[in-house]
Design a protein that fits this description.
The structure holds two protein chains of two kinds. By secondary structure, chain A is an alpha+beta fold. Chain A has three domains: 44 residues, 2-Layer Sandwich (Uridine Diphospho-n-acetylenolpyruvylglucosamine Reductase, domain 2), CATH 3.30.43; 126 residues, Uridine Diphospho-n-acetylenolpyruvylglucosamine Reductase, domain 3 (2-Layer Sandwich); 111 residues, Enolase-like, domain 1 (2-Layer Sandwich), CATH 3.30.390. Chain A is built from nine helices and twelve strands. Chain A has a five-stranded antiparallel β-sheet. In chain A, helix 8 packs antiparallel against helix 9. Chain B starts with a strand and ends with a helix. Chain B has two domains: 76 residues, Beta-grasp domain (Ubiquitin-like (UB roll), Roll), CATH 3.10.20; 94 residues. Chain B has a five-stranded mixed β-sheet with strand order 2-1-5-3-4, with helices on both faces. The longest helix of chain B has 25 residues. In chain B, strand 1 and strand 2 form a beta hairpin. In chain B, 45% of the residues lie in helices and 13% in strands. By secondary structure, chain B is α+β, with helices and mostly antiparallel strands. Chain B contains seven helices and five strands; from the N terminus they run ββαββαβααααα. Classes of the chains: A alpha+beta, B alpha+beta. Chains A and B meet through helix 3 and helix 4 of A and strand 4, helix 5 and helix 6 of B.
Amino acid sequence: MADNIKTPSIYLPKTLSDLIVEKGRNPDAVLFAGGTFLMTRPTSNDIISILGVPELQKVTHTDRFLEIGSAITIEQLLNTGSYLLSKSTFNAIESIGTTVIRSRATVGGALCSRSMRFSLSCILATIGAQAEIRTIQRKGFRGKRIKSIQNWYSVRKLYSPSGDFMFGNNIVMTRVRIPARDDAVQIFRFLEAPMKNPSQAVYFGFEYTPNQNGISQPTLCVAYPETGFFFSQDFNSGLSSLSMPAEKKAVDEQCRILREKLSEACPEITEVQKARTIRLFTSVIQEISQQFMTLV
Amino acid sequence: MKLNFTVDGVQHSISVNADKPLNRIIEELVPSFAISNACRNASCGNCIVLVNGNAALSCLIPAFRANGSSILTYSAFRKTRFCHAIERAYAETGTRPCEQCYAAKTLLIGSLLNRYDQTRTILDVNKTQDNKQNISIYDQNYLAREFSINSCKCVDIGQLAQVVELAYTFRRRQSGR
């Protein structure tokens, strides 16, 4: 019986090129960063630890964006990004787990988990962050030459509407670029813990830029731990026409459209999640309306 | 794999599976660490240890990540003066966590006070008020979030806040500040 028990092999690459070669040779191997999620889901696949790769631990800081390696922990992101992230984004990231978890969990791990979406993916998708993905290809005789092609993708495009991570096993996420937008306002609401109650948890993110007549560039992004990831350009465009303070009739109409779009895009989310999303949307629009009333 | 690490000040060099969780390894090395009700799944928060001075859930650390690190369990922490300050605070406030979570909560308080001390020093040096991550042990919401890692609800968060505050006072007195 003991013959059937397989102990995974651990690879500890020291450079990014080593990591890519190792992942190219062993595409089924699991990339291990903080382990806060992977250790709760034991695997018999081989493990490649990315923590020894200095390229994935880099932080670059300009006035326009913050660029972080994917092996940066969420706590490090808070420390380095405290001057660039808006207060609401900072608070939203700070609400992820506790310090004990945040100082282990990495940004890459939170974004690339295959079976579960975490609130960080909703936060970064809402504020328009981008991720650099290296796709590994085997070329040459018997695929002995391993190459990688790097591309930047919006975090919103990493997930399908059903919440699945869109890329296969042959990728490595290397960097994440978080834009600095002083004029935009973000609102985040997270309900329930993803690990304890995934069928009821909702991560709600909304970003907008206030102007004289209402809001411009509205971005709504909602993630559900196991069943969906909602981002609709059509819906966001429709929201731009909403004048502020919003009338009840107009809000009800937007809720109806949102309900339809949700049913269409994320059919697997539960009724509780759907109802919560609509409620959160209504309360956020009312909150923005109130701010416009005080301005008037 | 060969794992070299220090547990409670004792250097160990053992052969283990590279993905074996640290809590299972420590259970074998420190008998008093054995936790009867531990979930082994990052849910209960009873397996907290200090890894290089910071609190961590030992069930989330595989053996290969513990290589070269220094681990302190409650068995060794209880002999330090920092623990005495916390235990004195328990006695003064009449609050005592249950047997299951006593070690975890005490280590968590110890780690929180360490971080608070470090952050205060940084703030004092930089003289900046703009730091958003201005943690405060006097903020009950902050403490409630930090203690949520431990699922045992035997002690009210208000009482725990009193313990933390008092333990910090005792600790400052010990340090002569």
